[in-house]
Amino acid sequence: MLQSSRQPMPAESVDPDHKAFLDDYVGRLHRATAIDDGIFARISATRASWLRTREQGGRVIFIGNGGSAGIASHLAIDLAKNASVPALCFSDASMMSCLANDYGFEDWIAHAVRLNARAGDCLVAISSSGRSKNILNAVAQARTMKLGVITLSGMNADNPLRSLGDVNFWVDSRSYNIVETTHQFWMMAAIDLVIGRAEYPAS
């Protein structure tokens, strides 16, 4: 039998400064993702909104910028594939560049909503700061079309997005990565609540 020539990696000592940073970082994440009755209620309300959307023949539309756009794409495919709730996000580069070129970056998502949304749809608007103009304008467009709206924001408690949804999630953190991680965690919890299980096969 051939013996591996690779030697096990020696145990590495942890730099005290790195450990202090990571202890603080993980503590911040734990505090941000801590679940209380208010968050339980919002996750449950999100589940109810998505199921109602499906029953009405609608779709859940996820929107965001940057990291939040990546989260939007992940949530849309998981909600559709794993929870059988029709969902989409506006990730097509041609559509984005066309609408941004014609209407400006602050209004391209609003026009994507105008062109693609229909009665019975639900918009999930994700913005870490809660101040992104194109997200706020898209929510305003969704309201004119009488769509359901769920918002996810963070940073300042008085950000404008936080008050615009039927269900509003807010992360008490000024760290973009912690806010985005918490948004994804809460929405994944809502998806798994629709499914009714925390563990299931990928296919």
From TrEMBL:
InterPro entries: GmhA/DiaA (IPR035461), SIS_dom (IPR001347), SIS_dom_sf (IPR046348), SIS_GmhA/DiaA_subfam (IPR050099). Residues 50-201 form the SIS domain. Pfam families: SIS_2. CDD domains: SIS_GmhA. Gene3D superfamilies: Glucose-6-phosphate isomerase like protein, domain 1 (3.40.50.10490). PANTHER family: PHOSPHOHEPTOSE ISOMERASE (PTHR30390:SF7), SEDOHEPTULOSE 7-PHOSPHATE ISOMERASE / DNAA INITIATOR-ASSOCIATING FACTOR FOR REPLICATION INITIATION (PTHR30390). This is SIS domain-containing protein. It comes from Bradyrhizobium diversitatis. The lineage of its organism: Bacteria, Pseudomonadati, Pseudomonadota, Alphaproteobacteria, Hyphomicrobiales.
